[in-house]
Specification:
With 511 residues, the protein is of the alpha/beta class. 40% of the residues lie in helices and 12% in strands.
Length: 511
């Protein structure tokens, strides 16, 4: 844990205020330098404890207790720099260490130090990404990295277009907007009157909720986002997709958009892209692949196929490097096979920002092809990380994560009295139940599953209170609560997986 008592400014500066380090006060440089150096000490101590397996993942406190522990009020008069350092250390003291090797709770785990360094530089540069004029180096970086990612998706994508967006949900929204614009180019100006009929979109019943949210945000209504049934492994059933398309067409509706998920949030399932692409081509529909989670496997020759086979046939692809690739949050990309759609769909021609008579090639200005105005610089940390790893390093990283997941599956199978593997995973999502002592001789049945499901929230609470482990749990449409373990951190070893299973047994054997 960060010891806040270690971070005190010297007596000479301890009572200085924020005004004393403002840049226009030229005499403030020593004070500013000392403040930042002490802040770096706080940050580096947090990095150290994050990577120390002897440290807790979190010091859990209930909200009411946390409110009493922390001084969160906004003061009328500014506090001292010493207090600010104390505030920073205290904030990190009670923050969950998502980079800890035994944090398996989210899709985005781990703390990549190169990406972290990139985020520090990004914050220091503090620029917007809407024009080349104010972000020349970062705009060029984005162009190079996005082109490279499209090359990885497919050779027929190189001349397409891409953009970094604030999360996979917004990336999926960009795909929806482009698809509607492609089918109804006048919708942008004329609105709903352009469409003679009800638009309908389709996605798997295992897909991310953001796809359904597109129907709500963009005026279709959630009733017109049809959830296509999935098989026992969580993959969309193509014959069911075609049945639902024909059903709506018979009603005079306009099916136009299909979202195929590559790496579902819970089970890590991959929809069969080629079969779905055949259906989209048959009925003239846009195919979007939401590979926010599974996109990293595009970098692996060993694991790309058959999971992502056919991705080059899509019209758009969401891919989040902040998940499997380990870039720091946030880092989400949306890619299009066809160039120009982002601009024609979203351009508002705000001349006070996107003048046409600038001294450079205005095609490098990105602001007018997105629905945002201000856009955070999410490219530098990814570019720096990619420079450090290279394609080869990322491939080894993907292969290692998958191999660790395979190791976990083996260890679960080695202990059938204590653990029940729900299915063979396609990805790093390992879904299972822990079996406490009293249920170990009970034959597996729906009744037993209900009992096992009741254990999950209790065990999770024990994990959080002990601070030694964090594993997520949830139900799905076929099962009560079960654990979903995620391995997406480069820091994880086989020893951490052995610890995970042993610690779950320690925490839950008496339930």
């Amino acid at each position: 844990m960060a010891n806040t008592s270690n971070y005190k400014l010297s007596a000479a500066t301890g009572n200085l205020k924020y005004d004393d380090i403002l840049p226009y006060k030229t005499q403030s440089f020593p004070t500013s330098n000392e403040f930042l150096q002490k802040l770096v000490d706080v940050l580096l101590d947090f990095v150290r404890t994050t990577n120390d397996r002897n440290e807790k993942i979190l010091d859990f406190r209930h909200p009411e207790e946390m409110q009493n522990l922390l001084d969160l009020k906004v003061p009328h008069k500014g506090v001292s720099l010493q207090q600010l350092i104390h505030d920073c250390a205290t904030t990190l003291k009670y923050q969950v260490k998502t980079g800890h090797p035994r944090f398996f709770n989210q899709l985005s785990c781990g703390l990549d130090l190169i990406s972290m360094a990139g985020e520090w530089l990004t914050a220091t540069a503090n620029t917007n990404m809407f024009t080349y004029e104010i972000a020349p180096v970062f705009i060029l970086m984005e162009n190079v990295v996005m082109t490279h990612m499209r090359e990885i998706i497919g050779s027929n994508w190189v001349k397409g277009d891409s953009i970094l967006a604030p999360g996979g949900s917004i990336s999926n929204l960009y795909a929806f907007l482009a698809a509607r614009h492609k089918m109804f180019p006048n919708y942008k100006e004329k609105g709903i009157a352009t469409i003679q009929g009800q638009l309908v979109m389709y996605t798997s019943d295992q897909s991310h909720y953001s796809v359904k949210s597109c129907a709500s945000i963009c005026g279709l209504g959630t009733d017109n986002c049809l959830m296509v049934p999935s098989d026992i492994h969580g993959r969309m059933i193509p014959s069911e997709l075609e049945r639902l398309i024909l059903d709506r067409k018979a009603k005079g509706h306009i099916p136009f958009f299909v979202c195929c998920t590559s790496g579902t949030t819970v089970l890590g399932a991959f929809d069969p892209i080629n079969e779905i692409a055949d259906i989209c081509e048959k009925y003239g529909m846009w195919l979007h692949v939401d590979a926010a989670w599974g996109g990293g496997l595009l970098l692996s020759k060993k694991y790309r196929h058959p999971r992502m086979t056919g991705v080059e046939r899509a019209d758009s692809v969401t891919w989040n490097p902040h998940k499997l690739m380990g870039a720091l949050l946030q880092c989400s990309t949306i890619h299009f096979k066809e160039d120009g759609l982002l601009m024609s769909c979203n351009q508002m021609s705000a001349d006070y920002l996107f003048m046409q008579d600038k001294l450079y090639d205005i095609r490098y200005d990105t602001g007018d092809k997105v629905i945002q105005c201000g856009r955070h610089n999410d490219i530098f940390k990814l570019w720096l990380q990619w420079r450090a790893k290279g394609d080869d390093g990322f491939e080894k990283h993907m292969d290692r994560l998958m191999e660790l997941s395979e190791y976990m599956v083996k260890r679960i199978k080695d202990q059938p009295d204590k653990f029940y593997l729900i299915m063979e995973p396609e990805m790093v999502n390992v879904s299972f139940w822990y079996i406490p002592t009293r249920l170990r001789k009970m034959p597996h049945s729906a009744a037993r599953e209900q009992e096992l499901g009741k254990m999950c929230p209790i065990m999770k609470s024990r994990m959080m209170q002990s601070g030694t482990l964090m594993v997520g749990y949830q139900p799905d449409d076929r099962r009560p609560n079960f654990f979903r373990n995620i391995i997406s951190s480069a820091a994880v070893t086989e020893g951490d997986i052995d610890f995970l299973l042993a610690e779950m047994d320690r925490l839950g054997h008496d339930l």
